[in-house]
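Sanity check

After download, print the first record. It should look like this:
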Amino acid sequence: MTAQARAERLGWKDGLNVRFEQWWTNGDINRAIAFAKELVGSQPANPLVFAIVSDPVGAGLVAGLPRPGGNITGFKNSDAAMGGKWLSLLKEIAPGLKRAAFMFNPDAAPAVGKYYLDSFETAARSLKIEPVSMPMRSDAEVEATIAALGAEQAGLAEFSSFLAARVGTIISSTARHNVPAIYERALFARKGGLISYGASFTDMFRRAAGYLDRILRGEKPADLPVQTPTKFEMAINLKTAKALGLAVPPELLTTAVIT
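Expected structure tokens:
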């Protein structure tokens, strides 16, 4: 169920007592900036509810998770430990892994890379994997990085809207260069990525509609705690695993969506 559908079930009808607009950036940072300026310029009467933000405190959106303290609240899609979780899962499905890169776009959200990188590096030490931080800003950098990882028989974890918008390029390149990679969303595994793990975006948007309802009925965002994910999804693409010569551990098969 989409956020709009959920809101409509709660009594908010487009064109009647509320107006719904959808703007898509497709990973384009300049477009995102332009949209943000347009939104601020329109001087919306209502507060803001975010649905997918990794570190709202670090990004300066809220003062704290229990009490946001301003005119904005919402739902964070992860926590800092996720970097380590991604690497641990990648090691389970590719036990021969000795080196792994964390790929992110520092221009999209400067704090995001650091947010996940600490736990990624901590997990790497315990798993005896060499961690590499790889900030990416262009398609050419993505292609060159994955090619280098393939030559080094290394793995990859990727994050950020910039990279999500280029997931087709990443998936095809990791396939060509035999690089095992883990992604944040199940959609990426369905598109050919090896494995994914992360919060259910569908569930988060549904829950965000509940906050919109409460605010529109008079509650203040400052009094609504920032919520953490309650539903996570793991997906594994068996065809990709076979192509990479990987045997998926039975314990992963019992908990994952298989594509």
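If your output differs, re-run the checksum step. Summary of this record's structure: The domain at 82-198+233-258 is CATH 3.40.50.2300 (Rossmann fold).
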